[in-house]
């Protein structure tokens, strides 16, 4: 459960960051892409430093499952590249954002389909936001927008859509995990009650009748066996006396 909480908060922070970044691009479309790349580079470097510090400050238990050091090192390298090559990256920023959104949406499509197969009710909300973000990501990749301001606005809208679909996924996953946890707790409580008292405490559990009552009820419902008809006795014939003359006397 602790691992899920960490993943949940990480997704929440990333979603909020994407939404804020998209809103900034929509509000200020005239902002230079070079400054935008340098801003992303600075955020990536700061994120990497925090991850590496967290790796050394946390306890050794479970550090091999979080990959804090590797993630932090990669973020620092990516941020340094954005800071150093900002003018070159700014020319293809729309394609970079489009590819990132496209990859993220492909995974979210499977999340939506898995939710539908598991009987979730709100799976279509994740699917809706994912489809919108997917279409916007494809439009950015193929560079269908002309003009710097329009391109910045569409990149902002795409980032907001991607952040919203990540936010919906996190909220729905949290609700689903809570339902599963409550169901497991109820099952454990019922099993414990059966083990200690021998009685089923659930209201939906069927009542078990007494053994003697079950036998009497089964006997009452069993139809009587049909009577076997009497078979007539075979007639007796009188014995015929043996004729001594007719008896065969072999020659001596």
- Rg calculated over all Cα atoms: 41 Å
SSE order, one letter for each helix or strand: HHHHHHHH
The rough form would be described as flat
Number of strands: 0
Spans of at least 5 consecutive residues with low confidence: 244-248
Separation of termini? 114 Å
In what range is the share of β-strand residues?
under 5%
Helical region count?
A: 8
Mean model confidence by pLDDT = 76
Helix percent band = over 70%
Structural class per helix/strand content? mainly alpha
Q: What does this protein structure show overall?
A:
71% of the residues lie in helices and 0% in strands. The protein has 252 residues and is mainly α.
List the helices and strands and how they pair.
Layout (H helix, E strand, L loop, with lengths): L1 H26 L5 H25 L10 H17 L1 H6 L1 H25 L5 H19 L6 H50 L13 H11 L31
Helix pairs in contact: 1-7, 2-3, 5-6, 5-7, 6-7
Brief synopsis:
The protein is mainly α and 252 residues long. It has helices at 2-27, 33-57, 68-84, 86-91, 93-117, 123-141, 148-197, 211-221.
Q: Key features?
A:
single chain, 252 residues, mainly alpha, 8 helices, flat
